[in-house]
């Protein structure tokens, strides 16, 4: 069983055209380029992720948790009457509440990104193709996740075609 078939193209325009034709033919595709190619995300079926919701949830949890922690320690656990101020003096809770909101939101964003990206993934089948390291420099690659796609890719006239082992 193989991961798929990888084809290299000379330009982003050729990659975009090949991705369009492969998607129209019903293939599951992945595209790799050294810079964002306009329209490629829509063709490959990339969708918006849930990172903003994860960060919002983390921020709300951090803010509520930070405020509750201060309220509990000042009012319930260790009440100290200092200068006649009320025990639940919310203005002095604002800095720590803000800091815990930012801290937990940032941590939730990082952990959510790692989880949604399936990281840490130490090896990907495409790394077995010797030329694939050039995808981050100046080459454009299209991977079709099917074993029978070689004749289809040959019609698109790529620079090279490689079978990608699992």
What does it look like?
By secondary structure, this protein is an alpha+beta fold. It has two domains: 2-47 and 125-165, no CATH class; 51-116, no CATH class. It is 45% helix and 14% strand. The chain has five helices and four strands. The protein has helices at residues 12-24, 40-44, 51-77, 94-116, 150-155; strands at 2-9, 29-32, 140-144, 160-165. It has a four-stranded antiparallel β-sheet. It is rod-shaped, with a radius of gyration of 26 Å. 22% of the residues are buried.
How would you summarize what this structure contains?
The chain is α+β, with helices and mostly antiparallel strands and 166 residues long. The protein is built from five helices and four strands; from the N terminus they run E-H-E-H-H-H-E-H-E.
Note the topology.
Blueprint: E1 2-9, H1 12-24, E2 29-32, H2 40-44, H3 51-77, H4 94-116, E3 140-144, H5 150-155, E4 160-165
Antiparallel strand pairs: 1-3, 1-4, 2-3
Task: Offer a few descriptive terms.
166 residues, alpha+beta, 2 domains, 4 strands, 14% strand
Report Rg: 26 Å
Oligomeric grouping of the chains: single chain
Order of helices and strands: EHEHHHEHE
What is the domain total for the residues?
2
What would you call the structural class?
Answer: alpha+beta
Helical region count?
5
Which parts are unreliable, with pLDDT below 50 for 5 consecutive residues or more?
Answer: none
The number of strands is 4
The major pleated sheet works out as: 4 strands, antiparallel
């Amino acid at each position: 069983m193989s991961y798929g078939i990888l084809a290299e193209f000379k330009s982003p325009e050729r990659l975009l055209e090949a991705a369009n034709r492969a998607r129209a033919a019903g293939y599951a595709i992945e595209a790799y380029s050294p810079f964002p190619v306009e329209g490629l995300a829509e063709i490959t079926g990339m969708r918006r992720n849930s990172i903003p919701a994860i960060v919002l949830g983390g921020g709300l949890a951090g803010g509520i948790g930070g405020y509750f922690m201060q309220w509990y320690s000042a009012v319930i656990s260790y009440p100290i009457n200092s200068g006649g101020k009320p025990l639940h003096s919310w203005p002095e809770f604002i800095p720590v509440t803000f800091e815990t909101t930012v801290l937990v939101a940032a941590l939730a964003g990082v952990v959510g990104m790692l989880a949604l990206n399936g990281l840490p993934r130490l090896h990907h089948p495409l790394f077995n193709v010797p030329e694939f390291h050039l995808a981050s420099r100046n080459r454009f690659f299209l991977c079709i996740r099917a074993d029978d796609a070689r004749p289809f890719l040959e019609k698109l006239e790529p620079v090279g075609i490689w079978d990608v082992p699992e």
